[in-house]
Amino acid sequence: MMNRRTFSKSMALGLGAAHLAAASRKLKIGYTALSWNATPRAAENLEPALKDFSDLGFHSFETFAEVLEMWDAKGALGDLIAKYKVPLTSGYFTANVVDPALRKETIEKVTRLSKVIRKHGGTFLVLAPNSVRRPEFKFAESKDNIVAALNDYAKAVNDAGLGTGLHQHTGTAIDSEEEVYTVMHAVDTRHCKFAPDVGQLQKGGANALKVVKDFKSILVHMHLKDFVGGEYFAGYCPLGQGKVDLAGILDTMESVPHSSNIMVELDRAPSTPITATETARISKTYLVKLGYQFKA
Questions:
Q1: Residue 2 located in a structural domain
Q2: Chain centroid offset of residue 129 CA
């Protein structure tokens, strides 16, 4: 049996271990504003998201690059960020990677958007491929265009002063595990790093942890998302309620020598039983249990 002295000593050791675990966590977790976008890319959704991020203590935020441009055009983005004291990390942009006729126009757009992001302290543009009709889409026939487009876009983003990386996405030109590996082994990773959505990897049938481990040396940005396959949130769920090995993924990213942006994300929730704010609170609670700290 454990006497009071032994119990106290065990508690102290346990608390010390928890403290060391928390102290060893170098990643600062941010959040994307997707859940707050009942209307996709609507500029007015950004402020309530930032208020919640501030109240919950998340370290940074991401939203659609076009939304950032809308606020910047009004001359209000800097004031909004200052009001809630949540720094901008990244903007999300969907780029056409299969149609060469759109390449020049898209390069001009990613350059413009990258300058807006950098102007307001952001460091990264997330490059997502365009949607396609998956039953009819022939990846092999489009591979060369995809790789060339990503290389051109990534170089343009770098020239504008930001980092960037491929963000594979369900229903797009880069969806399956095989497509991810094929593209990432072909692109110029000096410019185009890897910026996955781990929930979407899992939903697509991949082992998200294995993919993260395989590309950890060039993985510099991540949407941290869980997947359960339920009826809400397009099958996704707050962190810790699904099938993704989030703890393993975070441990992997803690071990790499370079810095990585880790942004919690959950799909839009206009008809779900809990609010976007509550889903963020649940995810934060899970991360606290893993030793992550948030702003007071």
A1: no
A2: 15
Mean residue pLDDT of the chain comes to 91
Q: Express as a percent the part of the chain with pLDDT over 90.
A: 85
CATH number reported for the structural domain that contains residue 175 in this entry: 3.20.20.150
Q: Which residues of 213-223 are buried (b: 16+ CB within 10 A; e: fewer)?
A: bebbebbbbbb
Give 269's pLDDT tier (boundaries 50, 70, 90): low
- pLDDT tens, residue by residue, 107-145: 999 999 999 999 999 999 999 999 999 999 999 999 999
Q: What value does the mean pLDDT take over residues 144-164? A: 98
Burial label, 119 (beta-carbon count in 10 A; 0-12, 13-18, 19+): middle
Query: Which domain range does residue 225 map to?
Result: 19-289
